[in-house]
Structures are given as structure tokens and as C-alpha cells.
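User: quick one, fold this
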Amino acid sequence: DLSGVDLEDRSGDLLMCNFDLATRWPSRLPAGFDPALIMGYGRDPGLGVRALHQGGIDGRGVGIAVIDQTLLVDHAEYKDRLRLYEEIHCYHKRATLHGAAVASIAAGKSVGVAPAAGLYFIGETSGDYLGTSEFEQDFLYLARAIERLLKVNKRLAEGEKIRVIAIAQGWGEGSQGSDEATRAVDRARREGVFVV
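Assistant:
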């Protein structure tokens, strides 16, 4: 609640702050600072994507799969299009910000690149903590998540097939499980699924 704060000379600070629809603003704001306009920019995926949506290119008939951290499954951006949510080796017991952000960018109804696409999501952690704060990566779990999505894809009707798997991490040759992850990606590509 900022309704009692004098912000008229604080435009620089306001341009660096976070706010949402619940923010209560004072009656006088700096000239040119328009919270609704800024929120609108934040919802626009950019790159001319809105024009594609208006032309009917909105992900309809396409499945997008995401492999990321534990997901908040009832988020308003994507809950109506979430077709599958499973977890494979997740050390996060609660939903994380990253998974929700990636799912929203991919298929969110107001911010997504493909707002009409079906969303398939596997929560996965590529590794383990070794009893301390040290994290040891193991991409075998990622390979299993990809293989699971390919298995699901075989059962889907033609207008629901997963066409893209988005993975917000990378691995290098020699990393534990990297050979398995690379083979799983190669298999997905052979089956006509684009992996990014």
C-alpha cells in the first residue's frame, strides 16, 4: 500500500521497483509513470507474437512440454491447459518461481508465446545435494524426463502431440548422465519433437 507515500519526485526509483495489480498507488504519481502501461508491457511476449496470435497462430493443436523445477499447478496463466504434471526426482517440495515462469512464457494465457497450446510439464532436478550445500549434477534424471514425455506423446491424438520440449538447462560432455541426456534429445528429434 503506497497510497500514503509521496512519489511525485521518485520516477527513477519507481522504474526499478516491482509491483502488481494489488499495489495501491497514491493519487499523484510522477509525470509519465503509468503502472497500467508498464504492466501491459510485461504481459507482451514481444517479437510480433501478438500479431501472430491475431492471425490465428497461437499454439492451437500443439503440445508444448517443459522440464523444469517443481510447478505451481493451479497458476491462472496455464492451469486450464496443463495436460500432464509429473515429478521425476524433485528436491523442491514446493513450487518454485522458475517453473511457473517458463510455463507462463511458453503457454500462459496472457503472457505466453503459444497461449492455446496444451502444456505437459515434468518437474525434475538434475542431481542431488550431498548432505551439505554441495550439489552434484546428474543428467540421467533429465534423460528419464525426456523419455517419459516421448512415451506420453505416443498415446496422444494428432492434434495434441508434443511438438516442443523446453529445457531450461544445459549439460556438457563428460557430465554425469550427459550421454543419456544427449541420446534422449537425439531420440526426441528423430521422433519429430523439437528440443530447445
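User: anything notable?
Assistant: The mean pLDDT is 92.
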